[in-house]
Amino acid sequence: MTRPLQPGILLAAIFLSAAASVASEAPIAAQAASLSVRIAGNHFVDGAGRTVRLLGVNRSGTEYECMANNGFFDGPGDAASVAAMASWNIDAVRVPLNEDCWLGINGAPAAYSGANYRNAIAGYVSRLHAAGMYAIVDLHWNAQGSLPADGKTGQGRKMADLDHSPAYWSSVASFFKNDHGVVFDLFNEPHDISWDCWLNGCTTSDGTGTWQTAGMQTLLNAVRATGATNVVTLSANGWGGDIPQWLNYRPHDPAGQIAAGWHVYFPETFYSDPSRWASSVLPVAAQVPIATTELGEHDCADGWMNQFLPWADQHGLSYTAWTWNAWPDCSNPVLITKYDGSATGYGAGYRDHLRALSGFKPVATQAVSGPASGRSAAPARTPASAAASAHSAAASARPVGTTAATIAQRRSGTTVSFAAQASAMASNPGRALLIWVGSIALLAAPLGFTATRWSVRRRRRRRAATEATAAEPLSPVAAKPSQT
Known about the structure:
484 residues, alpha/beta, 3-stranded antiparallel β-sheet, 32% helix, disordered C terminus
């Protein structure tokens, strides 16, 4: 077990030095107004005031490769890889970030942290914009004190840490505040904390010791203190899944630009059950935009998505699927098998759905952001004109969101475990009984088949023995009547 560390004078000096270094950098250049997004009522609009939705993918890698001293991206991050995404009719990409790599602290490799990391992210955001896509940057890996935000102590944390996360968001917001094509996602998947802690912060404990979290209000204040008015999404508590409670704890935003973040995975998160959507999700969507910043289907298929996506379209939800990565196990879930856009079964369903949509993109794409990149403007992509096809909404089962803590397992293709939750089947006894009876029948079938074969063979052997006995001539002794 790692001994909990108390921030000391040396740590404070390192932190202040890093923060000062970040603050001294020039912020990202302004975007053209056409590639911007803001909130109007309960929906997103672009720079021309037209309703848009954030529909796309997550691009994992920038949260862990830097701390592993492997680079900035897991796979390509060049213009060709971005063009492959654009071919799916995507207009938004969620880019997970690492707190230590951004700030250049706690042992983050120099080659892949600090200014180098920030410029790499800025360059990638610029390439996304050039292809007509918004960027959603989120705080994905973090750690308190002097612990490294690596695969051992940085992934899957309960909440943002007070030691570094406010400074991280102050830096990120300063960096991108002139680019309203960038959305800020304050923390990936808060979990195992109270909703009051989610909002206001608290003292918590885990395998790394006892430490202080930063609540969503503190993180939002850090963003707004820079003057940034960018859209901000706040993932719900419960691994991003407890969306109904979000309205009761939303923080105060002077800019009025916050959206609810929701993570939903089939079949393991509670609110993946279609029977819960109307009563639990729509009341939130009626008041604020919902950005489903992670969604996925763990059976390598698209049956559940064929219910969820049309429903989300009907009610104006945004969504970015997990994940545009070519990891070996499709059930992770991954959308592609190659970075040229070759799709898994799950990915093919998502791709085809996006290509059938129209009318959700910004009007035009002009200048790109980035540190003096000199890149030329890219024309807007023409969205597919076909209307979204109708899909049946048959009932299905339930799910906890995919967590940062499962990334290493996903990449290696090993079994991924998820936190246990009550089954949605429990609320439907009829369906549960049918499934139970079906399961028993399925298990009993091989035994029944074996017993039947044994019985048939036994009858055949007896019949053959009887016929053989009848065919033999009776012996004189056997022919004599018995004498008693």
